[in-house]
């Protein structure tokens, strides 16, 4: 009796997976760590945010104060941990508002077109023509620097860019045959945007969200450095640099460590975007 060769040959199948680079994994861990710090800062900070722990200001790194003390003798480590709540929290809220608003308006303008598209685009173009730092300074100086004002100001500044990006993507998707079929079927505007346009642009939009998060972190830090950000005794990382800049000549860690915190977060987000998990198809063998 003969045995078929095909029966003894191992079966092959395709398996779909994701390839994550080591750099992307490390950056994700750093971002996750800062997110957890922002959430649990009151539980892990060794001292309250405004407590003066030593009357000897600008102390160097020691076992008692791992990041030294600031210009008033407050623990720098505790202030950086609490500062993460404002830097990460405000930036995340602002980028969420900006991207959700901008993407929604961009998809709507691409689908409706006509006068609505032209009028909205010209208005947001006019808003884009104003330098972001100048617009932020004017709005915050006029209205105040509360958390809600900072968040809305940062969101308004980055809505036009998010709108432009989403609209450019949505215009291309709107020309696809399946969108035309959905329109002929009589689907409503909301269904076309939600079920036909959005799935085709969600990948680039998420990458754009990450980049705008970095821009907002840097702009918030700039505002705080100018004294228009989070107000004392609370502080974000930019405010920590500003209030301790006088100790830079003393090589004070109070200036260096907040800068490292800003750099670690922004660089990690940028590198994570560049190393996003890529879908791959692996051929595997089953005995």
TrEMBL record:
GO terms for cellular component: plasma membrane. Keywords: Cell membrane, Membrane, Transmembrane, Transmembrane helix, Transport. One of its GO terms (biological process) is transmembrane transport. It comes from the Bacteria. PROSITE patterns: ABC_TM1 (PS50928). The keyword Transmembrane applies. The keyword Transmembrane applies. InterPro entries: BP-dependent_transpt_permease, MetI-like, MetI-like_sf. The chain crosses the membrane at residues 20-45, 86-113, 134-159, 205-230, 250-273. It is a multi-pass membrane protein. It is found in: Cell membrane. Pfam families: BPD_transp_1. Its main location: membrane. Residues 84-273 form the ABC transmembrane type-1 domain. Signal peptide: none annotated. SUPFAM superfamilies: MetI-like. Belongs to the binding-protein-dependent transport system permease family. This is Glutathione transport system permease protein GsiD. It comes from Methylobacterium frigidaeris.
